[in-house]
Amino acid sequence: MAPKRPGSAGAIPETVEPSVLRSSSDAPLYAALDLGTNSCRMLIARPKGAQFEVVDSFSKAVQLGQGLETTGKLSRSSMAKTVQAMRICRQKLKHHKVKRMQLVATEACRRANNARDFVRYVRRETGLSLDIIAAKDEARFAAISCAPLVAKSTQQLLIVDIGGGSTELVWLDLSKVPKKRRKKAILSLHSGFEGAHEGAKVVDWISVPLGVATLRDQFDDVRDDAARFALMSWFFEENLTDFSPYNIENSRDGFQVIGTSGTVTTVAASHLGLKRYDRTKVDGLVMSSDQIDKVIRQYLALGPEGRRADPRIGRDRHALIMSGAAILQALLRVWPTDKLSVADRGLREGLLYAQMSEDGVIDIE
Question: For the packed helices 289-309 and 225-238, what is the interaxial angle rounded to 10 degrees?
């Protein structure tokens, strides 16, 4: 399946600092649910100045896309497991009396022949309405979520969101954006990629139909651990050649890559030696390419059994970490940077920012 990528467009931000709009306890509650190929994740939050504060959250591995590569359909067992998770989400939404929400499904449902039947099944069993969003929208919301992590010196920005079924990349040119206007520029992406946003421009974007689950499944028959990793990494790079900034010679000065995904945060936690995950230590961390390579070499040295037992990786992620690491290594091989900014945020946060921005309940000045 070829990567999806229409034309170009524009946008981008700067560090988000809280200001006062209203008492946060009086602010309305918003929800965002991301149903991906591997997991179901939800946030409930209220606006607070230029940011939001999380009131409740939910995350569960549901493996919705299991078997999709071979059958083209979502399996009955995966759908049933997902519905069980969404029942918990419904209870949380009802408990908090959330009125404004966006509940989306991504690559697995975009590709499955029976996705519409699944959406009706979810509606019938839970009362929740899922929206299967386009790859372009997934890329857009991921970009919005990373607004607080853009450095003041950044001129060119690459945002990478490694998902279970696909990987989205957005290249943003910020060279003409005043530093104080970057936050507003990236939040204005909620209206779409087209056009210029406060002087910012989307140079290009791409959705590669290879994520941690789908890439792993494509090379599942390769028994040698190191060989499988190398094949996955080079195969992913081959799928980037239609991305217009591919292999462009850019100066390292003013160039920033932000990675958002479970892969990136797991590598960061491993680098820090965290046996218990701590978001405050991971989100916003800047890692060098040498540090990332060192962690990946450690993963390879551990082998499948060692990775399964490693508390830094966790039992939910050990089977997916090497395909994610292969994607990450390919990206760092292609673009001119020796650093990666780690984002513990993504589609859910982007959905929340977009809803709140549309409603005018966060300060974007």
Answer: 130
Contacts of 359 (CB under 8 A, 6+ apart): 28, 100
296 and 197, same structural domain? yes
Q: How many other CB atoms are there within 10 angstroms of residue 119's CB atom? A: 17
Same domain, 218 and 321: yes
Mark whether 112 and 182 lie in a shared domain: no
Nearest to 53, CA basis, from 92, 81, 27, 74: 27
When comparing pLDDT for 195 and 187, which is higher? 187
Which SS3 state, helix, strand or coil, does residue 170 take? strand
Would you say residue 200 has pLDDT above 80?
no
Which residues does 273 contact at the CB level (< 8 Å), separation at least 6? Answer: 312
Residues 172 and 130 occupy one common structural domain:
no
Check residue 9 and give its pLDDT. Answer: 34
- Give Cβ neighbours of residue 259 (< 8 Å, ≥ 6 apart): 160, 162, 328, 331, 340, 341, 342, 343
Is residue 134 a contact partner of residue 95, using CB atoms and an 8 Å limit?
no
Q: What is the pLDDT, as a whole number, of residue 312?
A: 84
**Strand, coil or helix: 165:** coil
Question: In whole angstroms, how far apart are CA 61 and each of 31, 34, 37, 82, 268?
Answer: 19, 12, 9, 9, 20
What number is the average pLDDT over the span 138-148?
Answer: 88
Domain limits at 303?
149-343
**What is the gyration radius of the CA atoms in the chain, in angstroms?**
19
Where does the pLDDT of residue 296 fall: very low under 50, low under 70, confident under 90, or very high at 90 and above? very high
Question: Among candidates 233, 257, 245, which has minimal Cα distance to 343?
Answer: 257
Using the predicted structure, report yes or no on whether residue 5 has a pLDDT greater than 80: no
Distance in angstroms (rounded) separating the CA atoms of residues 296 and 268: 11
Band of residue 177 on the pLDDT scale cut at 50, 70, 90: confident
Host H or E run for residue 27 = none
Residues 224-237, mean pLDDT to the nearest whole number: 95
Count of alpha carbons within 13 angstroms of residue 163, beta-carbon side: 32
Cα 216 to Cα 218: distance, rounded to the nearest angstrom: 6
If pLDDT is split at 50, 70 and 90, which confidence band does 316 have? Answer: confident
Is residue 363 situated within a structural domain? no
The answer to whether the beta carbons of residues 268 and 285 sit under 8 Å apart is yes
